[in-house]
Design brief:
133 residues; 2 helices; C-type_lectin-like; C-type lectin domain-containing protein; C-type_lectin-like/link_sf
Length: 133
Amino acid sequence: MSLSVGAPSLLGPEGILFSTRRIYNWNFLCSGEVICDVVGGHLVEIETADETNYLAGLLRESKVEHAWIGLEDFLTEGDFRWASAGAKPTYTNWDVDQPDDHQQTQDCVQLINTGVWRDGNCAHANSFICETS
């Protein structure tokens, strides 16, 4: 697996393409998901606490507060699925009182650099993390 966080980018020894550009509407044209697709991947699907901690550390090192991951609940509110395959996550790390769908506008999920997850408004500019196999 290799990972990426939104351009300019750097391909590290672990195959991580890392970037901090804030991208609008990750689920639409010129978005994080499209950019991930261009590099042969998709928004990251975090499967373990170790992966969460590793990615949160990359965000902190790059002075990025939060980044989109590939989890969303567009089809059914509260039924979060990985965008690439529609699978339910087997691991989550929600922050306290999350997800909250504030004002019924939060269908995308972001990893915070402290390691917790929060739902957010997909229309907000944000960095993002991609993974490729």
